[in-house]
Design brief:
Oligomer: single chain
Number of strands: 15
Distance between the termini: 16 Å
Number of helices: 4
Strand order of the largest sheet: 6-5-4-3-2-1-15-14-13-12-11-10-9
Strand content: over 45%
Largest sheet: 13 strands, antiparallel
Structural class: mainly beta
CATH class: Mainly Beta
CATH architecture: Clam
CATH topology: outer membrane lipoprotein receptor (LolB), chain A
Helix content: 10-25%
């Protein structure tokens, strides 16, 4: 749920559908900027911008433990106290005063164009294979190489992705997500990075939906603070998360 806190982040350069070592290392480096710490608490903010004006925002903390455990806790605002729990392939929404957790999917919205999966899941190196597209682009002043990614599982919402990577800095520039129909559905631009405990991490990205009314809006996702922490595995169960 953070790993993030949350843009699927794909084919083979050989006849057997495997990425080359260079492309695999680039995917791993991209993942590391968003999932740099195995166990941490991240303070974050999502802001929806419609027609150039801030329309709404949400503050939340993301608790992360290992590859597949995450917990988002909303702080303040109308969603204060709500929690979203990820454990393996399962996700739940926990609402204050409600007895039973509600199963949800990674594609359900956190705010605007940002989904819970953008914050919590997305591992390019695990979910996709990559090949060089032979194209490049400039994003935010960075010269970026474009990789074509193909999903390993038919369950992925976006079976094809174009990932632009700054080769020198080993950071992502932009990601474009495509539906099975071939239609481009969303784009994520990585706008800021910073050094944290000796590692380069994403501190801001912007998400734009490209289909329907949501295409008028941009969602800015900011990672404000990373704190290393020893987290009790019990908080990554519906019962334990309620007591946090």
């Amino acid at each position: 749920m953070k790993r993030v806190l949350a843009a699927g982040f794909l084919l083979a350069s050989s006849a057997f559908g495997q990425s080359s070592g260079d492309e695999r290392s680039l995917l791993a480096a991209v993942d590391a900027t968003r999932n740099a710490f195995d166990e941490a608490v991240i303070s974050a903010r999502a802001t929806q911008i419609v027609d150039g004006k801030e329309a709404s925002s949400a503050n939340f903390d993301v608790y992360v433990k290992g590859r597949d455990k995450g917990l988002i806790v909303f702080r303040g605002g109308k969603n204060s106290g709500r929690k979203v729990l990820t454990n393996g392939d399962r996700m739940w929404l926990l609402v204050p005063g409600s007895t039973n957790p509600v199963p949800i999917t990674p594609n359900q919205r956190l705010l605007g164009g940002a989904s819970f999966g953008d914050v919590a899941r997305l591992r390019f190196s695990e979910d996709y294979t990559a090949k060089a597209s032979g194209e490049s682009e400039t994003v935010g002043g960075r010269s970026c190489r474009v990789l074509e990614l193909t999903g390993k599982s038919p369950k992925l919402s976006y079976p094809r992705v174009l990932l632009s990577v700054d080769d020198r800095a080993k950071v992502p520039c932009r990601v474009r997500f495509f539906l099975a129909s071939g239609r481009e559905a969303r784009a994520v631009t990585f706008t800021k990075f910073r050094e944290q405990s000796g590692k380069k991490v994403v501190s801001e990205m912007e998400i734009r939906e490209l289909i329907g009314a949501a295409s008028r809006a941009v969602t800015r996702l900011e990672y404000l603070d990373y704190r290393m922490a020893r987290l009790d595995p019990k908080i990554f169960t519906p019962e334990g998360a309620r007591g946090l």
